[in-house]
């Protein structure tokens, strides 16, 4: 009977709480972050993009979407 060789999987991105915000990590690589700005707004940065949102959940979704889009989009100059 032959044994199957499993390919190594990339770890799943994990949200971690940081000082005045949250950070999205994949292993030891920081993918993006959400920070608390003034007036109860959140600013986010990921994959060379940035923006702001009124709610933490919306800002986290924007970071996840930017990271997912960066994985699928081809490099323009690379």
Give the number of helices.
1
Poorly predicted residue ranges: none
The structure class reads alpha+beta
Over the alpha carbons, how many angstroms does the gyration radius reach? 16 Å
- In the sheet with the most strands, the strands line up as 1-2-3-4-5
What composes the largest sheet?
5 strands, antiparallel
Q: Give the distance, in angstroms, between the N- and C-terminal Cα atoms.
A: 45 Å
Could you describe the 3D structure shown?
With 78 residues, the protein is α+β, with helices and mostly antiparallel strands. It contains one helix and five strands. The longest helix is centred in the C-terminal third of the chain and has 17 residues. It is elongated.
Strand and helix map with partners:
Elements: E1 14-18, E2 21-26, E3 29-36, E4 42-46, E5 49-53, H1 56-72
Antiparallel strand pairs: 1-2, 2-3, 3-4, 4-5
Task: List key phrases describing it.
78 residues; five-stranded antiparallel sheet
How would you summarize what this structure contains?
The chain has 78 residues and is an alpha+beta fold.
